[in-house]
Amino acid sequence: MQRLIQYIYACCCVLLFMFVSCNDDKSGLAPSGTLCLNVNQDETVLTKAQSAVVNESLRVDVIAASGDTIKSYNDYVKEVQNEKLVLPVGTYTVSVVSNQSKDAGWEKPFYAGEETVEVKAGEITSATVICKIANAKVTVVYTDGVKENFVNYETTVSNNSGSLLYTRDEYRAGYFTPEKLTASLALTNNDGKAYTFRQVFTDIKPRYHYTIKYKMGDKPGSPEGGSDFNITVDDEAKVVECEVVIDESDMEGQKVPVIKLSDTFKENMLSIKVGDNLPSSSLQIVSQVGIETLTVKAESDLFAAVGLDLFDLTKPDETTKNKLGVLGFPLLPGGQDMKDITLNFDALAGTFLQDIAYLQSKKLHTFTVYAMDSLHQETEIKFVYEARPNVSILTNKPNAFSTFAFLCGESQEASGHAFEFRKQGDIEFKTIEATQVDADGTFSALVTSLIPGQTYEYRAVAGTDSEGDLVSFKTEGAVELPGGKFDEWNGNNPANSFWSSGNNSFAGNLLSPTDDVVGNVNSIKAASLQSQFATVKFAAGNLFTGDFNLSGTTGYIKVGRLFSARPTKLKGWYKYSPGNIDYSGEITTPSGRKINVQGMDTCSVFIVLLKNTFTINSNDQSTFFDLETDWFKENVIAYAELPSSQCVETKDYTQFELTLNYFYPDYNTSYYLAIICSASKYGDYFKGGTKSNLKLDEFELLYDYDPKCFSNE
Fold it and tell me: Is this structure's pTM higher than 0.70?
């Protein structure tokens, strides 16, 4: 049976729901109906690959008109097919989606669909749910001219759903959420010269197949840049061909647009206050070939109120011009040189101060500017205006974790700094004295023993009678680590797809279950990580949160799972039996540190909280995890690892507890959780011992406050 991923452009599945109602209410209960689910293939698919939709793991939810989910099924085939479901008479929404994540992935379409149906007494009601591919398909093609002129060529395609690396030998299709795509092409010519340039594709639609085709040629009419491209769309066939023409003779001078804020911004933020002199502020954009679009994303209540969340300054309509004029946002004057643009924000900043003149709290206005040139190369910058009222005291937004929160306030009072705090719904406040008061008037306090997922409210107080506005906040949940007990298995991987292992298709024992008994824990199974020689190379037994894909002899390890809370500790059990390192030698880390791997093997267990996922290319050591490189310094929110003194042989299962060190404790936008374990610490460099074995079990996350998390040690 062929797999669903053989569909080239779109695939529809039909779920036939039959509701058979009964008005013979002899038992005195409310009238009910019977739900029967069948799966058929829609004959209107654009290709004739005869794959049945039942191969796709689908989640089914039956949702009442009130919004409550009445029934949920994780696997249509195993739990629902040929089964009957009795439902009370009423209106329902039947929602069907793929069980897999929406993250970018190879040959991994995501299906979704829903239908509203009314179950009536005494009638048979049927409904059809069409499940369509909800993401876009992307392939990359390198023509013979590129192959002849360059010894290396690879393209990284990315958007908010993740990134995929299309190497010279990558022929698979990638699937992405239908939103703006960025394609970064890295080239090395036959003389060893390296070039990189980037194109942006803005109008990305679901169920379309986008082919990015790189070819050599002259670039008429655009002598300043090193590439040109043309987009051809066949809407009937849902095919988009993006042809990129490379002119190597001109690539030396090609640069993406440069964006620079005025010096009045500090770390991309400008704080302005009612009553103070307003500092001048501006933004400059410089492009070698000219700006084609200048898109602004506004995260501001003032802009949202007039429907200006996203706008393009290069071609605004009259309504947009009028709205921007009222807000004081600068427009591009007629005859503007699109190679050198300056936007003056003085009037805009004045609007922000007028808005809060009578408020008791400050406001943040965040803007992201995307500058794309005529070659579809794009640069972006994000900056923030902090507008502050002229008041004696402010209650600021707190930094709330799961069981504790850092409360924040501002005042110029000399004494009496504290907070009044309560759970939402309570009448009485508790007073919490400020534990830190800074010279600039900010003060803070830590409150612990909070309930995860609970709403609280507080206000800052200072002096004898000054108090700020009441601010509410909700603590993060104490989210359980999915699959952390390793009790359920599917082949060589835990049944919960939160986890994965590298290269198990070549070496099935890298990750396997074991029936070991762990301490006093009622453990069903544990994870056994076995290092070994696999086909052509040494392979370390490994386990990580993320996905593994193989292209030829290159493995791509996408590390990190979207997570909704910030833990303080990782707790678990391990048992390690190391072997002598029989694949030894010197390695060089991405940050340049040289290590001679020899002697007795060691294991590794570490946890990372990230701002973004990252992908390791097994044949490119510059992509390996290294806290000393710029990317990881910027993107690692928190980190903890098993100390080297404990990465040695243990006779029995030993419990460990890793305390996360938060490098960015105030970052609370979105998190990706990465837990990486290996029976051979330097296995990613293909070094280690083939007899090394690491057993793991009963992993759990803890959320209680620990001062070590914020000690910066």
Answer: no
